[in-house]
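Fig. S4 source data, part A: sequence.
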Amino acid sequence: MVNVRLILDTRKSSKSSNSELFPIALRIYHVKPRMIRLPYHTSKIGWNEKEQSLKKSAAINKTLDCDNINRILYNKLHDARSLIHELGDGIQHMDIDILINEIKTRWQDKISPQLKSKMPNGLMLSDWGKVIIERKRKLNKQGFVRFISGNMEAPYFSNILVPFLTLKLCVWILFRFYSVREEKRKIKSK
C-alpha cells in the first residue's frame, strides 16, 4: 500500500536558517518513506495539517498567493495519486526511488514543450566538456578523449579556459551547437 500526503517538513535539519521557515513536501510511504521537497515554505502556524494546505489567515502567509499555491500543491498531490492508481497492483513490485522518479516525470510532462525550450537549465561549461568526453569515450574515440582531457588539464590551457569553464550555459544552446558541429563533421566526411 502506498500512502501519499502533503506535509510540512518540520525536522530540525530542514528548517531554513535565514528565514526560519519549513519546506512543504510530498511524503510518499511505500515500504519506506521518501519526501519530494516542493519550492514553498511556511511556518508551523501557517500550515493546515488536516487540509494539507496553506492557511490564508496566518500572518506569515500574507505575502503569498495562498489560493494559487494551494491549487498547485493539490495538483501535484493529485498527479501523484493518479499515477499510483494507474500503476495498480504492479506498484507492489516497484522500488520507491523509481516511483519518485515517475512522479517527477509526470510533473515535468505537464509543462508544454514550448515553455520547456525557454526555461534555462544552467550547466557549467566544464561539466558539458565532461559529458562530451564521456560520449566520445563510449564511441571509442580515445584519441579525441586524450586530446581534450589533456588540454583541459594543461596549465597553459587551463589559465586561458578558466573564465570560460566557469560560465553557465543553457543546455539547449549547447545541444544546438553540438548538433551543428556534428552535421558539419558528417558533411565533411562525405
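Fig. S4 source data, part B ends here. The chain has seven helices and seven strands.
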